[in-house]
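Researcher: Here's the sequence for the chain we discussed earlier.
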Amino acid sequence: MSINYKKHFLLEIFMRYFWILLLTLMSISCHKTNTQITAIKGIDSKQYITVLGTAQDGGYPHIGCQKMCCENYYNGTNTKKSIVSLGLIDLKNNQKWLFDATPDMHTQLAELEQNHLKKETIIDGVFLTHAHIGHYTGLMYFGREALGKKDIPVYAMPKMRTYLRNNGPWSQLVKLKNIKLKSLQRDSTMLLSSNLKVTPFIVPHRDEFSETVGYKIQGNKKSALFIPDIDKWEKWENSIIKEVEKVDYAFVDATFLNQFEVKRAMSEVPHPFIEETINLFKNETLATKNKIIFIHFNHSNPALQENSDVRKEIEKLGFNFANEGQNYAL
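Model: Thanks. This is the structure I predict for it:
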């Protein structure tokens, strides 16, 4: 074999294996990228959270609002926003749960059924946070005037259970066994399946009729906080920074952007302003900021509008916003 032929032969072998190696690496790279994207969207995950609503209790558009924020809905600039709720889907065990029963619950349950998991049981359980109108009044749809089914599990804290049993029309739901009240205790973890856990924890809020809780939702690989309502972070006995660091997603109260947003006394409706939360996390890592997903927006909050300059600037700082239809793998 001549020297030139040997060189040609070796070069051909080298190039062949080079391209095989290159294509293999490209395939691995694409596979990793796609896995990451599908995990975020929840498409390839058997267990995930889905966002069913993002607006504060009054919804969007808001009753009686004649300002530009709601005018933008009527002129077609912005779309309707459902009231804050999360769905929890477990395709492996063929189960689904709802966090909070909003006045939009009828369409939110339909969303779960049509686009996530369709089964004879409309829902395997509803977890309530507290007794403000956007968070429990959707239970009315379980009554004889609407669904009229039996023994739908409703998980609630002690004061919340007492309130539902002793006050109409909710007491009728209990009496007619449309709903079956299930006990929750603060900081006590409930196993939904072998690798799905839910833990309620008390947060400070205007507790006229019941206590208020947030939830920690733990899956096989990831976990989330859900705190749609709280008065102020500094009133909580826990550090929100430390709690966010422990999880992968943190859906947190973003009712108002700042104190100048509405004319009514903010002491009547205390919430952590988005600006306060941003300032609290300003010295934290980008990875920690990325975990925060703002949710529960008042109609007046410019950050509710998906294409607003305010939202874009906050996103540049590393924070995220909940949008209906988003899925988060657990």
